[in-house]
Write a sequence for this structure.
């Protein structure tokens, strides 16, 4: 029987939804599930990991895990895989995951598949579906001649149920050999937004050039506040300096798959569609009836966004107050 190790990420003292997805998927296989938590608050997170299906928690509270340093994380993850005996390693296709796992794969000579959107596990067999060419086609990847299979899944691709508070897991501390660091992190300047990261958000309101200027993103922020959503943007408005790169959705930005994606003033360039086409419901608002975004939209509204968005915000507010 295969053994899973899930690289478990957290935000603001809670396990990220993307990691909850992976823990629950691994638990459904019936195989042992090890949650690896590298975080100064690891012990508290370990209990939450058990609620989502971990049968064992391997953790380190070392201060070096306060911020991401690839040298420390790579060494710790390599030793965790070896000590746990895991044959399948799952992680989110986050910025951390994409930077970390190629390093680990090279170190232990393992196979790794990133940007998975579907995953199937049967015994020792693992199949992962992933997009290619900006989502124009898809391929199913399998593993050959590798003792350890590693998969990075895009967030919001797997169902998540509420955690079971009755479940527990054994916890053990990971001791690892610290590397001689070539880099030292002096400081990290974080954004001031308290909203969920785009890759974690269940509802996203995104704006494009149709908003005309940066100050008009206020109407999106107002709608997002009503819905509890996160605000995103196209590359064009990021390049114009209207908003920061952390808000960019698309091929050169973040890949998202929320339950609801509201696209305002977005034409729907292929690079943007590649980053949000996995959304379950897409609502497009655009004054151009021929905008490509309407070909992907579940619902389309042709009209002036400056009239429609405030009206939507008011109506949603009425509904949600009842």
């Amino acid at each position: 029987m295969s053994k899973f190790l899930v690289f478990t990420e957290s935000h603001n003292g809670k396990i990220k939804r993307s990691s909850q997805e992976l823990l629950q998927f691994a638990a459904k296989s019936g195989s042992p599930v090890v949650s690896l938590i590298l975080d100064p608050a690891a012990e508290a997170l370990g209990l939450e990991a058990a609620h989502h299906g971990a049968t064992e928690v391997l953790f380190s509270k070392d201060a070096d895990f306060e911020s991401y340093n690839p040298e420390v994380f790579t060494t710790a993850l390599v030793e965790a895989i070896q000590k746990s005996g895991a044959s399948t390693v799952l992680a989110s296709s986050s910025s951390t995951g994409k930077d970390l796992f190629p390093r680990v794969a090279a170190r232990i000579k393992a196979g790794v598949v990133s940007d998975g959107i579907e995953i199937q596990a049967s015994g020792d067999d693992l199949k992962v579906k992933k997009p290619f060419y900006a989502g124009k086609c898809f391929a199913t990847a399998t593993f050959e001649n590798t003792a350890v299979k590693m998969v990075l899944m895009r967030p919001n691709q797997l169902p998540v149920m509420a955690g079971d508070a009755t479940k527990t897991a054994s916890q053990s501390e990971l001791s690892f050999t610290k590397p001689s660091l070539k880099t030292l992190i002096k400081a990290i300047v974080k954004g001031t937004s308290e909203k969920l990261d785009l890759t974690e958000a269940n509802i996203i309101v995104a704006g494009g050039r149709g908003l005309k200027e940066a100050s008009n993103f206020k109407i999106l922020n107002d709608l997002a506040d009503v819905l509890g959503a996160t605000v995103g943007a196209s590359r064009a408005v990021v390049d114009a300096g209207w908003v920061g790169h952390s808000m960019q959705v698309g091929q050169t930005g973040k890949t998202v798959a929320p339950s609801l994606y509201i696209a305002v003033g977005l034409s729907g360039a292929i690079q943007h569609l590649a980053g949000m086409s996995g959304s379950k419901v897409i609502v497009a608002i655009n004054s151009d009836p021929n905008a490509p975004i309407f070909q992907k939209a579940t619902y389309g509204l042709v009209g002036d966004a400056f009239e429609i968005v405030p009206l939507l915000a008011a109506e949603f507010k009425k509904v949600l107050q009842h």
